[in-house]
Amino acid sequence: MSDIQTLHAGFAARIDAVLNAIEMEGHLPPEANRSGVTVEPPRDPSHGDLATNAAMVLAKQAKTNPRALAELIVEHLDRDPDITETSIAGPGFINLRLAETAWLRELSAIATLGDDYGRSEMGGAKVVNIEYVSANPTGPMHMGHCRGAVVGDALAGLLEFSGHKVTREYYVNDAGGQVDVLARSAHLRYREALGEDIGAIPEGLYPGDYLKPVGERLAQEFGDRFKDTPESEWLELFRERSVAAMMDMIREDLSLLGIHHDLFSSEAKLQAAGKPAEAEAWLREHGFVYDGVLEAPKGKAPPEDWEPVELPLFRSTQFGDDQDRPIKKSDGKWTYFG
Fold it and tell me: How many CB atoms lie within 10 A of CB 323?
């Protein structure tokens, strides 16, 4: 992939060069942190084509006020032939108007590069795992799942376009009570496919007609072998077959959206292999998991049955979260987060 700078990135580099010049002149300390400097279109297009907050971000480090630093920056920018006008707005924002030649060069680059316009190596082949959609395998996708699918896939595409190595993952939530309910619901449809009048779907089971074909396939595969046998003889088998059927249906819907995952991870298989426990041990060893009391729900009175319980908590606040998150429930089962 070629390393192509778009218009904004190109002018961001020019402003960085101006800051280098100001640093050489002694107006900006070499250790000044420029990470907060942005170059982007102003909210009001009448203010110009691009705007930068460089003076606002760096003034304190330069031991001056933002407007004074903005004037120094503008003095340099006025020498750039691709900038026709500069102005200082408010306390120190700098607005720029670009010459027609700058836009024409960019249009020429777009025409020449086509689909490669904007592609870069800025990601440096850094590996990124994006887990998205991950609808419970208990029924068809709905519009909320589709929205997550489109957003997740767009993010994956953008990261690949900018030089990252992306893995698209679907986490199959096939452990826990909801898939047992799915298996029981499929068993009911299996009995129906064998000719039994099942009547109204009992409370607590999935009533959707989408399980009828699943029951029919189970009847074709096993005949009446499990029609009247105890649940313990068929629950695991029917759970496996039903989840597989739901995932086939979900994959088909995703394919209609043009979305394909690289990896489908089974929660049940991860738990059977002891992977969460291994991860907890590693996280504890490195100080990311500790035993603590979960805070009461914020912004409203706690439920009447809420009580402080010590749980293993992940230090997610170290990564920008507003509170640490439990990785196990009070009964010892893993949380979805865990």
Answer: 11
pLDDT in tens, 56-74: 999 999 999 999 999 999 9
pLDDT digits (tens, 9 = 90+) for 136-177: 999 999 999 999 999 999 999 999 999 999 999 999 999 888
Name the region of 33 (left: φ>0; alpha: ψ -120 to 50; beta: rest). beta
Cα–Cα dist 209/221, whole Å: 20
Three-state SS for 25-71 is CCCCCCCCCCCCCCEECCCCHHHCCEEECHHHHHCCCCCCCHHHHHH
- Residue 257: how many CB atoms within 10 A of its CB? 13
Burial class (CB in 10 A: 0-12, 13-18, 19+), 156: buried
Higher pLDDT, residue 308 or 252? 252
User: What is the C-alpha to C-alpha distance for residues 167 and 127, in angstroms, rounded to an integer?
Assistant: 8
10 Å Cβ neighbour count for 16? 14
| Helix 231-256, helix 177-193: angle, nearest 10 | 100
